[in-house]
Design brief:
Elements (H helix, E strand, L loop, with lengths): L2 E9 L4 H16 L4 E9 L11 E2 H9 L3 H17 L11 E2 L3 H12 L3 H14 L7 H10 L4 H10 L3 H13 L7 E4 L3 E4 L4 H15 L4
Parallel strand pairs: 1-2
Antiparallel strand pairs: 1-5, 3-4, 5-6
Helix pairs in contact: 1-9, 4-5, 5-6, 6-7
Length: about 220
């Protein structure tokens, strides 16, 4: 008998480790399908909620936030691109890439959940930002990406222009921070177990199997 798991994937669309973690989680679930199945819900988290319009150069941002040198930043990006590539995702970050505010992207993701297109929009946003270098804070970009994910572009623009779901997103973000989550991705299973970071598939598989074994009824 397989264990049916509830998974909250807490993440930001401007976080490279989040797409790596998502691909690792999905492969881990596929490997452990004899033991577990899961429904994944994407939960909002903003890495840079105070980022102004237009964003900031990625190198400058990393230097300010972590004290990394340009050489360290470049080496880290190369490693991240390699990890993503091994999981089938093309990441094209360069010295000219920028970090943006993602609040409006999270509003669209909240809307997309009710339409059954949340996963498609999440993946389209990752590709738009990391592969194609598009600005996930730009409304024209967001509307276009929503269309690519199978959502109605006219309604998407209305959501963005009217500020819909702003309070919903803030309320959805608050519990995760209150529970001590300050970095993403955070994979929360059954509201009880936490798997942190962009883990490789084998790590996710092992963790999921262990959770399933713990949840199994005693014979």
């Amino acid at each position: 008998m397989t264990a049916k798991l509830k998974i909250d994937f807490v993440s930001d669309v401007s976080c490279p480790w989040c797409i790596i973690g998502l691909r690792g989680l999905e492969e881990g679930l596929a490997r452990a399908q004899d033991a577990v199945s899961a429904d994944i819900t994407f939960q909002p988290f903003e890495l840079n909620p105070d980022m102004p319009a237009g964003g900031q150069n990625i190198g400058k941002h990393i230097a300010q936030k972590y004290g990394s040198t340009p050489e360290q930043s470049a080496a880290n990006r190369a490693m991240i691109c390699e990890r993503a590539g091994a999981l089938g995702f093309t990441m094209a970050m360069t010295d000219e890439s920028r970090i943006y505010n993602t609040f409006d992207a999270h509003r669209l993701l909240h809307w997309a959940e009710a339409a059954g297109c949340q996963k498609a929009l999440k993946e389209a946003l990752f590709e738009a930002y990391f592969t194609n270098g598009r600005d996930p804070s730009n409304h024209d970009v967001l509307v276009d990406v929503a269309g690519l994910a199978g959502l109605d572009k006219t309604e998407a623009r209305e959501v963005l222009l009217n500020g819909r779901f702003a309070e919903d997103v803030r309320q959805a973000e608050a519990p995760w921070r209150s529970r001590g989550i300050n970095a993403v991705p955070a994979v929360v299973v059954n509201d009880r177990y936490l798997i942190s970071g962009g883990q490789p598939p084998e790590a996710f598989e092992s963790a999921l199997r262990n959770i399933a074994a713990e949840l199994a009824p005693v014979a």
